[in-house]
Amino acid sequence: MKVAILTGGVGGARFLRGVVEVVDPAAVTAIVNVGDDLEVLGLSVSPDLDSVLYALAGIGDEERGWGRADETWNALGTVESLGGESWFRLGDRDLGLHLVRTNALKEGAPLSAVTARLAAVLGVETTVLPATDEQVRTWLDTTNGSFSFQEWFVARRHRDPVDRVRFEGTREARPAPGVLEAMHEADLILIAPSNPFVSIGPILAVERIRFALERRRVPCVAVSPLIGGRAVKGPAAAMLQRLQGGISAVHVAQCYPGLIDVLVIDQEDEAAADAVSSAGVRPVVTQTLMRDAASRKSLAEAALNAVALA
Ligand code: GDP
Ligand code: CA
Questions:
Q1: pTM of the predicted model, to two decimals?
Q2: Which residues contact ligand 1 via a Cβ below 6 A?
Q3: Residue 73 has what DSSP assignment?
Q4: Closest alpha carbon to 59 in 71, 49, 50, 68
């Protein structure tokens, strides 16, 4: 069975680890958000691609959900003591990857090729693709002004209420090589329990990816990032409340109009199951908190078994 999965960083990476326990990792293609990418200290950083790579390589920090395990912070400490830009957290091991990627991009390699090389040396069998090789950037219009994604998310700790999410560069952006092929060849398309607005949104803003999903001939199963109306981490619930008018599973389903057939929701959100059905999406109720390998795997099984495949 071939699976294509649209994903952001932390929630998506956790889920992917479960998915590759259930299906052959080599039959999985992760299509990853690049709207959070940034240049900092002269380096090209792709936070969501890295969360996915680190998780699949088994070298990610499980507690934080991003960055590498056994990390140290000497380089960033030096940057700070020298008065450099130190608001974006880059660990020493992590920095090594950014150096390699930045250099390869400078030499003209597309991000997808650089990512493939990194995945290969990290022993990752799953195909990891940026949604696009072109530069796309997420911007937030908030009650306190407009901010680039990382300025809002990291520097301002996503405290400013968001009125609108905008994507720069997505209109013209083409899907990276392999993205549409993976979606067409898949027996099942998954949407990870990632933030619908700032993780999945920038992927779907690439027109040809959205079209491919709209015209899918195979089922699309999304997993809700909310548990009991709350995000496990990050601003998803606050954004749903403000941008979608509520924090129930129905509001999550409404983030993907015409794009999903099934929504996997948590037992705590079971009361909304009928309303999800009425919205034309089949709810699957299960435990969705991924706290260890067993819970990651059982959530992946619930999503993968949600539809009977031919
Ligand atoms: P980011 O790009 O690093 O911000 O990560 P994502 O967008 O991929 O994931 C963030 C989302 O993951 C948040 O909205 C969380 O609620 C969700 N998330 C994290 N851990 C879990 C979990 O164990 N279960 C579920 N259902 N969602 C989770
Ligand atoms: Ca992200």
A1: 0.98
A2: 8-12, 14, 48, 51, 66, 192-195, 199, 224-225, 227, 231-234, 236, 288-290
A3: -
A4: 68
> Which residues are within 5 Å of ligand 2 (an ion), measured at CB?
8-9, 36, 48
141-199 per-position pLDDT tens digit: 999 999 999 999 999 999 999 999 999 998 889 999 999 999 999 999 999 999 999 99
d(CA 266, CA 299): 10
CATH of 3-136+171-309, one of 3.90.1150.10, 3.30.70.1230, 1.10.10.10, 3.40.50.10680: 3.40.50.10680
- Among 77, 92, 58, 78, residue whose Cα is nearest residue 296: 58
Comparing CA positions, the residue from 188, 197, 272 lying closest to residue 4 is 188
Q: In the structure encoding, which two tokens stand for residue 47, read together?
A: 């936070």
Q: How many other C-beta atoms can be found within 10 angstroms of the C-beta atom of residue 42? A: 10
